[in-house]
Structure formats: structure tokens, C-alpha cells
């Protein structure tokens, strides 16, 4: 990467404070990136990496706009207990952490528990717990008298994901009926194995359920009624929103350029190359295998039709060779057998999605089966003016406007060829790609900002608190 001009070095350093906020904020996955399968996890400790190390993450109090202006201001001094089924870098726990920080901004007392919690302390759990502690979130054991007393005193209890329901009977036991009227159940899952009565038998009796998309809400309503013979409580749909920090980076042309150059250099691709990326933890449900099949088909189409396009690359962010999963091995074997290893780049799980969004040209959201419940990475990509090629399933259909902000394709094998053709369309029509990106950005600004999410959540929390108060009085 070329050396930056001296005139903007102070600005460069200042803006890296902003980058660190995004890099450490709630987004997708783990903490380091690799070039291919063999590069070391830790990047060089100079240049960009050193600048990031020197920058300091601002505390929430530094960016607090004041409880009076915040739609969640009425939560000041409220005691909120957050119950997560795990503390990891997956979507559910990270979203709950984000809500914890939003509540801390306005002065809520926030307590976090993880149930069941692994007996082994790992680096991820340790890091996330300390991130919460540093921002004033109290982390306590999910068992014992302290958490029972907290649940009874809390103004609001939020269960995150269906699996968290196991905590009720296991810990609260005979106290469950006292806590149910003040529970808001935040559900993100769409897979069938979450529909177990042992998880959600208390669901009809809580104050409300909050779900990220209308598609998922309808699915839960039908599935609980038909399979489990229970009724959903009053259900609120709350679309998610992008953080202010991420939007500031997305709207900063200097930041985007620096990040783009750095990531492309680390991947070994040129500035004019065209990058299609899928950013999700590597698993069959996220469709990385079908994405690679589509990418390979797109290269064949370009060759057969003798099209003049920039050199195309596929980037998979969310890899984890340490897990040594059969699925990831299959992905890498496919790449080698097709001879496209110089065009496919595997990147380790990372919380730092902003640099990759700045570096790529098109996001592919290829989640299979019922699709994503919402798909936070989709709106994050749109904030960087990226077109989205997504499956026509789940919450993606509520985000991406087909033909306007992106192109949709079916799930499963029948979507492979259409996705390949859509890749070729965007590769051969630069103006269409840029126009879709701009329209996606405009859609994010209209619907999917942090303040939109805060306003929607505030309405839900007010109603749940009112229900709880009415129940206690009666």
C-alpha cells in the first residue's frame, strides 16, 4: 500500500479511533484474519495494525447523547436481567450485548447471565465478559440465590433465543410464575431443532416475544401452534439497525479507502479486481458450498461467453480451521479440485467486518433453508453501498428489494445457476452495481439505523413494563 501523504496523517490517526469502535463492536465473528489456510493469525504489528493497537476504545459515556434525547431514556435506573444461552461470537449473544450497552447509555442497571455456561474459560468468553464489565454490565452466575433474587427484583427480564428458556425451570423452579409476567423473549432462530417444548413451554405466559423479521414471526406462530400445540404471546417485530460507529466509517471516504487497500493487499488482490464475499460463520446452513459452486459456474460463463470483466475473486469470511469441521474441509477440497485456489480466499472469523465491507464489491447472503431470521450483515453491507445477492428466504426478503438494492435467488441447488448469472450481471454492468449500492445505502438510512432500532425496541419495552406493572397491581 502506498505511503499516506503527511498532510492527513493526524486525521488518519484520529479516524482509527473510530475504526476500533467498529472492529470491536457487535457484528459477526472472531478476532483475526488469515490469508488462505496457512498464514498466521496475528497480522504484522506495524502500519495499520499498530495504529489500531494504539487507538483507544471510547467508553459509552463519551458518546452518550443524553437520556432526554434517547428513546430508551425511560429505562433510566431500571434493573434489567439479560439471559443468554451462550456467550460467543454468534448473532444472538452479540445482539443481546448490544442491547445491554444501549441500556447502559441511558443509565439502566444491567445484569448478564449465561446458561448453561461452559466450565472451561476460553479466550472469547473471557474477552466478551470483560468488554461488558468495562461498560458497566454486571456479569453473575446463572445459578444460585443471587440470580434468583435479581430475577425477582428486576423490572424486566429478557431471554435471548429459545434455548435460554431452559434456565427458567432449572434455576428459578417454583419462582417461575413470579417472573413470567415481566419476561420479554427475544427470538432469533428459524431452525426446527429449536422447537422443543422443554425450551419454550413457558412462552405463552410471558409478557411478549420480540422477533427480528415478519417472516420469522409468522413461522414461529404457525410452528408453535401446529407442532407444540401452544400459542405465542403478543409478538413484536423489530428490525435491527446499524450502529452509529459503523455508519461513520461507511460514510468516511478516507477510512474506506485505507481499509480497502489494506485488506486487498493482505489478500493479494489488485485494486481493480472484483470481490464477491460471503460473511458468516462457515456452516452448511450459511451456504458457503453453494456460493463456491456458483462462483465457479460464473467463471465458466464468463469464459464461454468471452466476456471482458475484471479478475473475479470469492472471499469467505468466517472460516475456522481450528475446528477442523468436515464441511470446511469440503469447501477447501472443492477449491483445489476446481483449480481456483488463486481466486478463493478464506478469512478467519472476525469481529472486524468493516474492513472487509470496505474491501469487497458485492455481498452474497446465501443462507439456506428458511434463510436468515434477519441478517445483520446485509444491512451493514448496504451501508457501504454494496449490492446484495441474497437468497429469497427469511428476513433477507424484508431487507433487499429485488432488482433495486440487489438480486435474489432461490435456496438450494436450484439457486446455484441463477446466483452465478447474477454474479456475471454485476460483473459486466458496473453502473448497475453502483446504482444498486446507492439505493441500498438510501434504504438503510430510511429504515435500518441504530436510532430506528432503539425507537422500535423502546416501544416494546414500554408495553412490556406496563403489562408487568398492571399484573403486579392486580
Automatic annotation (TrEMBL):
SUPFAM superfamilies: UDP-Glycosyltransferase/glycogen phosphorylase. It holds the Pfam family Glyco_trans_4_5. It comes from the Eukaryota. InterPro entries: Glyco_trans_1 (IPR001296), Glyco_trans_4_5 (IPR041693). Keywords: Glycosyltransferase, Membrane, Transferase, Transmembrane, Transmembrane helix. The chain crosses the membrane at residues 16-37. One of its GO terms (molecular function) is glycosyltransferase activity. Residues 261-442 form the Glycosyl transferase family domain. The keyword Membrane applies. CDD domains: GT4_PimA-like. This is (wild Malaysian banana) hypothetical protein. It comes from Musa acuminata subsp. malaccensis (Wild banana). The lineage of its organism: Eukaryota, Viridiplantae, Streptophyta, Embryophyta, Tracheophyta.
Amino acid at each position: 500500500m502506498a505511503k499516506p501523504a503527511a498532510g492527513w496523517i493526524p486525521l488518519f490517526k484520529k479516524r482509527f479511533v473510530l475504526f476500533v469502535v467498529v472492529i470491536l463492536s457487535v457484528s459477526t465473528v472472531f478476532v483475526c484474519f488469515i490469508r488462505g489456510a496457512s498464514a498466521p493469525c496475528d497480522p504484522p504489528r506495524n502500519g495499520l495494525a499498530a495504529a489500531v493497537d494504539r487507538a483507544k476504545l471510547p467508553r459509552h459515556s463519551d458518546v452518550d447523547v443524553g437520556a432526554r434525547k434517547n428513546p430508551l431514556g425511560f429505562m433510566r435506573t431500571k434493573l434489567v436481567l439479560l439471559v443468554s444461552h451462550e456467550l460467543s461470537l454468534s448473532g444472538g449473544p452479540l445482539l443481546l450485548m448490544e442491547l445491554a450497552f444501549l441500556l447502559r447509555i441511558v443509565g439502566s442497571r444491567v445484569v448478564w447471565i449465561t446458561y448453561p455456561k461452559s466450565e472451561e474459560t476460553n479466550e472469547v468468553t473471557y474477552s466478551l465478559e470483560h468488554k461488558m464489565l468495562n461498560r458497566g454490565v454486571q456479569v453473575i452466575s446463572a445459578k444460585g440465590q443471587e440470580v434468583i433474587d435479581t430475577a425477582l427484583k428486576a423490572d424486566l427480564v429478557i431471554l435471548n433465543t429459545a434455548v435460554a428458556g431452559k434456565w427458567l425451570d432449572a434455576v428459578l423452579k417454583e419462582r417461575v410464575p413470579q417472573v413470567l409476567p415481566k419476561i420479554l423473549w427475544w427470538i432469533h432462530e428459524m431452525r426446527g431443532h429449536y422447537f422443543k417444548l422443554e425450551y419454550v413451554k413457558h412462552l405463552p405466559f410471558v409478557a411478549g416475544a420480540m422477533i427480528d423479521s415478519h417472516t420469522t414471526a409468522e413461522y414461529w406462530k404457525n410452528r408453535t401452534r401446529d407442532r407444540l400445540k401452544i400459542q405465542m404471546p403478543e409478538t413484536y417485530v423489530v428490525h435491527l439497525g446499524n450502529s452509529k460507529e459503523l455508519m461513520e466509517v461507511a460514510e468516511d471516504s478516507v477510512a474506506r479507502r485505507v481499509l480497502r487497500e489494506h485488506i486487498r493487499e493482505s489478500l493479494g488482490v489488485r485494486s481493480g479486481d472484483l470481490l464477491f464475499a460471503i460473511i458468516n460463520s462457515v456452516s452448511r446452513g450459511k451456504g458457503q458450498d453453494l456460493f463456491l459452486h456458483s462462483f465457479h459456474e460464473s467463471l465458466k460463463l464468463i469464459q464461454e461467453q468471452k466476456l471482458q470483466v475484471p479478475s473475479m475473486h470469492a472471499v469467505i469470511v468466517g472460516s475456522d480451521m481450528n475446528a477442523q469441521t468436515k464441511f470446511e474441509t469440503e469447501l477447501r477440497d472443492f477449491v483445489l479440485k476446481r483449480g481456483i485456489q488463486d481466486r478463493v480466499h478464506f478469512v478467519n472469523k472476525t469481529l472486524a467486518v468493516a474492513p472487509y465491507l470496505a474491501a469487497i464489491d458485492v455481498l452474497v447472503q446465501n443462507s439456506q433453508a428458511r434463510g436468515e431470521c434477519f441478517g445483520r450483515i446485509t444491512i451493514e453491507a448496504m451501508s457501504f453501498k454494496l449490492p446484495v445477492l441474497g437468497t429469497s428466504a427469511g428476513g433477507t426478503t424484508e431487507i433487499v428489494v429485488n432488482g433495486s438494492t440487489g438480486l435474489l435467488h432461490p435456496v438450494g441447488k436450484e439457486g446455484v445457476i441463477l446466483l452465478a448469472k447474477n454474479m456475471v450481471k454485476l460483473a459486466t454492468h458496473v453502473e448497475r452495481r453502483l446504482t444498486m449500492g446507492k439505493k441500498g445505502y438510501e434504504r438503510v438510512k430510511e429504515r435500518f439505523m441504530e436510532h430506528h432500532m432503539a425507537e422500535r425496541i423502546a416501544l416494546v419495552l414500554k408495553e412490556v413494563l406496563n403489562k408487568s406493572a398492571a399484573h403486579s397491581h392486580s
